Here is the input.
Amino acid sequence: MSSHREAPEISKDPVADSTDVYAFVSPDKPNTVTLIANYIPLQLPSGGPNFYEFGDDVLYEIHIDNDGDGQADISYQFRFSTTVRDPGTFLYNTGPIGSLSDPNWNRVQTYDVSVVAGGSSSTLGRGLPCPPCNIGPRSTPNYAALAAAAVNSLGGGISVFAGQRAEAFFVDLGSIFDLGDLRPFQNLHLIPTPAAPGVNATNDLNVHSIAIQVPISTVTRSGRPTIGVWTSASRQKARIYDADAGEYVNAGPFVQVSRLGNPLVNEVVIPLGQKDLWNSLPPSDDKKFAGYVTQPGLAALLPVLYPKTFPNLAAAVAAKTPRADLEAILLTGIPSGIITGFTNFTGPVLADMLRLNTSIPPAKSPSILGLLGNDPAGFPNGRRVTDDVVTIEIRAIAGLTLPLVDTHFTPDGAAKVVTDFTTAPTIDSPPMNAFPYLGVPYDGFDHPS
Amino acid sequence: MPSHDARRASAERAGDPDPLAGSSGRRLSRRSMLHTVATAGAAGLAATALGAAASPAAAATRHPSPGSGSTAKAASGPLVVHVRDARSGDIEVFSGTSQTRLRDKDLAARIARAAG
Here is the structure.
C-alpha cells in the first residue's frame, strides 16, 4: 500500500498511521496548493458502533520545506477533541444527523488548527467541526451536504477539512504482497498462474483525511517555486492505562511515530528492520537510508520473480548500477536539464518529500501516469488524488526512468507496460472537482453490500 | 546523589530551564516523585503519580493489587517516572509536555523498593 500499515510498530496504531499524502496546485483555484494527509487505513464503512475518528492524543502535522534542507519551514498542526453528548446510550447517533450541530449526533469531534513558522505558532482556527462518519441512509441521509458544511474557511485564503473520505489510493494488495504477483503478468511469475485483471483491494474502504488549501504565495520563497511536503503523527512519550478512569493518560514531549512523503517509500523501499526508525526521523535524516533508494530491493526481486522478463534490469542490478534516477525522483527532485522544461529539484539534501513545483499549472487533461505520461502536473511533481503512483513507481524501479541518467541503458519491454492494473476508474466513489477533492465516503449500510 | 542544583545545572545544559519544575511550575522533589503508583517492567520501572495525596508508604502499600492505583487525576495531568536503569539511577520524569532526565541512584533504589 502507499503507506498503510507499512511498519511494524505503526501497524498497531492505526489512528496515528498515515496512509497517503497528496500535494497539488488546486485545479479550480490555481493560486493555491492543496495538501492532504490521510490517516486510519482500511476503514470498513460498517465498522460501528464506535465509528472511526482521529486520535485526541495524537499531534497531526503537515509540513512544508521551502528552502531545500529537508526540515520543516512551515508546519500546520491539527489537534482533535471528542465530546460524548449522552454517555447513557451505546448509539453513535440517536436519530438522523441533519446538520453538524444536530443533537442526534452523540459522539462529536472538533479540532484546532495552528501554523508553526519562523519559530512561532499562530492559531488559525479553534473548535472546527469534523463531519460524522457516513453511517447509512437513516443516520446520515444527506451525507454530501453534511460533509460540505465541514469545509471551513479560515481567512487569508485558507480552507481546511478534517474527516472521513473515500479511499482514493488504488492498488492490488492481495496480489502484490503474494510474492510480488501482478495479476496481468502472473503467467510470467516464478510461480505462474493464468494472467488476470487486477483487483482494487482498497475500493469501497474509507480513510480519515486532513486537508488544507493555502495560497501558494504563503508557502513558497521568492525564486523557489518548489516545496517539499510530508506529514507526521506524534504521540507523547509516556502513555499509561488508568484502569480506574478507563482511559489512557499521556505525559511528556511529543515524539514522531509516523511519517509519509512519497508513496511506497517506507512501504517497499525501506527494509523491515529500519521501518520504525524511518518513521521516527525527519526527512533531513534520510541520507542514512539513501542506499535503499539507489539499490532498491524490489529492482533485484523483479528479475527473480519474473524470469527472463527483465534481463536488462537484471544486468543493471548485477552491475550495482546506482539508481540516480530514483534518487532524483524520491530524494532530491529532478534537476533541470533532465526532462525538457521540467524541474522540481530542491537541492542536494537527500530527503524523502513530495516535491511540488508550484509554478506548473494544473493539467487540462491529466494523465494518471503523471510525468511518465508527459503530464508534468502529476506525480512525481507533487501527487494528485488520481495519479497511479503504484504503476509509476513500479515502472521506475523496473528501469523505465534509468535512461534519464544513463543513456546507455535500454529499459526492458516489460518496464514500459508493467502495472498492477488498478486505475482510478475502479474507485466507486470518484474524487470531487473541488476541495477537499477526495470522494464522498462509503456508507456503512451499503458497504459491504 | 547529585544535589538539586547539580541536577538543575545538568538539565539546563540539556535545554530544560528548570528540571525540578513540572508543567504547572510545581517543583519536583524526591518526595513528590515517590507519591506514586508503581509498576515494574522488564526493561525498567515506570511509575505514575495520578494523585498527590498519598504518602510514599501509602503508595507502596496500594501498589500490589493491580488496578488499585490512585483514582484522583491531578489537575495538571499525570506525572510519569520511568526508571530506565535502577543500578545507574537513570530516571526520566514526564509531566505535561516536558521531560526531565535525572541520575539519582538513591531515588531509583527507593522507587524500585516501592515497586516491590
